[in-house]
Amino acid sequence: MAFYDWNHDGKKDFADDYLEYNIYKESTKNSGSTGSSGGFLGKLFIVFIVFYIFIYLFGDLFELERPCMAIGCMEERSGSSIYCIEHRREYE
Ligand SMILES: [Zn+2]
Question: Cα–Cα distance between 16 and 63 in angstroms, integer?
Answer without folding.
Answer: 60
